[in-house]
Amino acid sequence: MNRAERRNFARAMLFVAPWVVGFLFLNLYPFLASVWYSLCDYSALSVPVFLGFQNYADLFRDPVFWKALSNTVLFALFAIPLGTALSIGLAVLLNQPVPGQGLFRTIFFLPSLVPAISLAILWQWMLNGPVGLVNMAVRPFLQAINAVAGTSLQAPDWLNDPNWALWGLVLTGLWGTGHAVVIYLAGLQEIPVELYEAAELDGTTPWQRFVHVTLPMLSPVIFFNVLMGIIGALQTFAVPYILTGGADGPGRSLLFLATYIYQHAFDYWNMGYASALALILFLVIVVLSFLAVKLGEKKVHYGGR
Amino acid sequence: MNRRHPTQEAITFALLLAFGFLFLLPFLWMVSTSLKPLEETMKMPPEWIPSSFQWHNYPDAMRAMGPFWTFAGNSLLLAGLNVVGTVLSSAWVAYGFSRLDWKGRDACFFLLLMTMMIPFPVVMVPLYTLFRDLGWIGTMKPLWVPSFLAGAFNVFLLRQFFLTLPRDLSEAARIDGCSEFRIFWQVILPLAKPALLTVALFQFLATWNDFLGPLIFLARESHFTLALALQALQSTISGTPWHHLMAASTLVVAPVLVLFFFTQRTFIRGIATTGLK
């Protein structure tokens, strides 16, 4: 580098310095330390003692870990497709020329602003077994089914029933889907009207236009949202933690990887084991994101922009 | 789409009404419960309008939480510091990544994008021990000092915006003998106001809503945020004073909703652009 280049570089460094410091201390160091701790017995009060892969060996024999992993993946598997379908559906409705469009958009968006603490406490109340609003809506349907089919279906006690708690959380998540609705609506508004007009002239039905025009044109946006959704869903912590009053639900039905990391790190001060769990979580996120990207390369249509 | 189909329009409108109603219902239920006497919260079938409005539920819930105004002050203080720190540092760094040419810039930017893949739960254990060794546990520092070190997502957002501003602006200023700092401060920042406002709003919301950070790093009750104080109340009370819990939840949501109503356009535009780019 000559003198001018060096000056140029020094000036640039002055600007990016805060990020460099942040990168070293808030990203690189903690990540490497996580790897090191995961190979150690570390109670946070004493110095880490090297154990080799003992934590990982323990982890694979730990049924609670498998429960946390399967809950985490199951939640992502249910919440993301349902949330995507609902938000695309609402965005398509909003994209029609109807009165009150702006008002409806605001209504759908508002729940996504609600802080996790209020959201969780509100839905604890909504999902209350005997007097919750959700069951009040569910009961008439069940009574009708029972009357017709002679069954005796009961409304579930959502958060106190190991078979239903995860579904309660999915429902809670669906209420907060408005953020995605706004993004999908913006994506829909960028699709050229001519495409629909041409398709309409060809005598297509609205459903055909949705499948062959809307979905392919929207696919880059869907892809981006699903990817962000995966990363977000896999680190779910606050809402289930608060829903269960700071625990993990009946039969650990609301125990997620992030919850289990938290328990080992800050309830049992078992930092080594917690770090091994953290790296597994990181691995799961990397693998699932990679799969999503691979799938995206095949299915996403980038011709539109 | 230009031709109007009356039946299709009517069905669309009916569906929007139904879903709109479903999305609003939890809010109405929250406020309705917050104004009921305790016995009435458990009444079946429920009354949507309380038989008598129990406005005192609100001060009662605030008292149950402890020093409410201290918690509210902490939440506001942290949100304010995070907004200032994030906006200043992210804009400063984004300038270096967009308006200056230097060797290794693209490699560094790629590194910055990669850090977005590391979720907080993965690094929270070493961050905790790091802050403890710095003597920051027992203070509020872990929750605001890092915001002055430029978050990757906000740098990315602002860089994209800075790139859209014509290069000639900087060249002209440089020929006039402007220092790089003055170009940043007096030329670029004023032009970037809408983008900066978006970053500020998102950051305010993220800090106000944060739960895991305060849960891990705050050790003293006098430092608790509203979110943490409310969770402490919820997990310690015996029985279920739902009227108080709903009143407290409403109080935590209300500032966010008020902020939204004043800045709706920025919000919606910001979300739409971050999702599409």
Structural class of chain A: mainly alpha
Total strand count of chain B, please? Answer: 0
Strand ordering within the main sheet of chain A:
1-2
Shape of chain A: globular
Beta-strand segment tally of chain A: 2
Task: Output the CATH homologous superfamily of the domain at 66-236 in chain B.
Answer: MetI-like
CATH second-level architecture of chain A: Orthogonal Bundle
Contiguous helical run count of chain B: 13
What portion of residues of chain A is helical?
over 70%
Rounded mean pLDDT of chain A is 93
Give a structural overview.
The complex is a heterodimer of chains A (305) and B (277). With 305 residues, chain A is an all-alpha fold. Chain A has 13 helices and two strands; from the N terminus they run αββαααααααααααα. Chain A has helices spanning 3-37, 54-60, 63-94, 101-109, 116-126, 133-149, 165-175, 178-189, 193-201, 206-234, 238-243, 257-267, 271-299; strands at 40-41, 49-50. A two-stranded antiparallel ribbon of chain A has the order 1-2. Chain A has one domain (64-299): MetI-like (MetI-like fold, Orthogonal Bundle). The mean pLDDT of chain A is 93. The relative contact order of chain A is 0.14. Chain B starts with 5 loop residues before the first helix and ends with a helix. Chain B has a domain at 66-236: Orthogonal Bundle (MetI-like fold). Chain B is mainly α. Chain B has helices spanning 6-34, 38-41, 57-65, 68-98, 105-115, 120-133, 152-163, 167-175, 180-191, 193-209, 212-217, 226-236, 242-276. The longest helix of chain B is centred in the last third of the chain and has 35 residues, at 242-276. The chains are: A mainly alpha (305), B mainly alpha (277). At the A-B interface, helix 1, helix 3, helix 4, helix 5 and helix 8 of A face helix 1, helix 4, helix 5, helix 6 and helix 10 of B.
